[in-house]
Every structure is written in structure tokens, then in C-alpha cells.
Amino acid sequence: MTDTALKLGDHVPDLSLNLADGRVLSSADLAGRPYLLYFYPKADTPGCTTQACSIRDHKASLASLGLTVIGVSPDPIAKIQKFEAKYALDFPLASDEDHSIAEVFGTWVEKSMYGRKYMGMERSSFLVDSAGVIRFIWRNVKPAEHVQLVTEAMAQLG
């Protein structure tokens, strides 16, 4: 995470998210309602599938809280579309191939596996209130715990 990354209490700047369905979702489209921006490393991998399917399975309860959920990965649109179709994911997923959104949120980070260092997406989530302010941040969130954490946070926001 860089020192310039968004932090708790920051206003989310204007964003433009390229959705898998071909639409572009902007901050203006989200104005006046809370939303969860969750960053995941790679479509159709075990952890990302667990997380996405949990959100899908709890979509109605999250929506009843007034929450819109958007997933963001560095995958190309075509891969995200296959992921959506394979698991019947019915919420917006965005491609951030150039990592521009991830860099703003500080989720494009150096990672290490088997001693090899590389840049990749950190599994993190940002709960943004209806005024566009980041109210909760979960870094390196566990996929199976994600929905529960978000639900509890929404209850705190009232």
C-alpha cells in the first residue's frame, strides 16, 4: 500500500469502472447510496470464487441493507465475463487491467510467492457511505468471512 492510497474517512474520487457487461460505472452513478468496492486477485480461482459466490448468495440481504456491491480485478473483460457466466454472478464486476483504480485504493501491491516477488491485487474491500466517504476498510480479507464483516459494518452505519 502506498502512502497516497485512500484511507478511512477519505472521499472516493471520481471513478470510471469498465464493467464486464460493457457498461461504464462512474462515481456519479453511485452517488447517494452506499456501496462496497471489493478487489480480488484473479477470476475463477478458489478464493475469488468463494468470495464472489458468497456475495451472489447473499445479494438479496445486502441489497435489503441498501448496499451495491462491485467487484474489481486486474483480469481482462473476457475472463471476467466467463467467470460471471460460470457462477451466475449477478452483480457488477469490473476490469482494472491497467491497475489505475487499484493504485488509487492501494490494492496493487508487491506480493511474494515461493520467494518470487511480483505485483498483484491485494484482496481488500472498501465500504463507502452514501456521501462517498470510506467508512470501513478490510485488507487481506478472508473470502469466507467477507459477507459477514460487511453485513456487521452496514448495521453499524445504520
From TrEMBL:
Query: Which family does the record assign?
Result: Belongs to the peroxiredoxin family. BCP/PrxQ subfamily.
Check the record and name the Pfam families matching this protein. Answer: AhpC-TSA (PF00578)
An example molecular function term from Gene Ontology annotations: thioredoxin peroxidase activity
GO cellular component terms listed in the entry, alphabetical order: cytoplasm
Task: Supply the enzyme class, top level.
Answer: oxidoreductase
EC number(s) given by UniProt: 1.11.1.24
Keywords from UniProt, A to Z, are: Antioxidant, Disulfide bond, Oxidoreductase, Peroxidase, Redox-active center
Record-linked Gene3D superfamilies? Glutaredoxin (3.40.30.10)
- UniProt cross-references to PANTHER family, sorted A to Z: AHPC_TSA FAMILY PROTEIN, THIOREDOXIN-DEPENDENT PEROXIDE REDUCTASE
Task: Tell me the subunit arrangement.
Answer: Monomer.
Which stretches make up the Thioredoxin domain?
A: 6-158
Q: What does this protein do?
A: Thiol-specific peroxidase that catalyzes the reduction of hydrogen peroxide and organic hydroperoxides to water and alcohols, respectively. Plays a role in cell protection against oxidative stress by detoxifying peroxides and as sensor of hydrogen peroxide-mediated signaling events.
Provide the GO biological process annotations. cell redox homeostasis; cellular response to oxidative stress
- Protein name in UniProt: thioredoxin-dependent peroxiredoxin
**Catalysed reaction, written as an equation:** a hydroperoxide + [thioredoxin]-dithiol = an alcohol + [thioredoxin]-disulfide + H2O
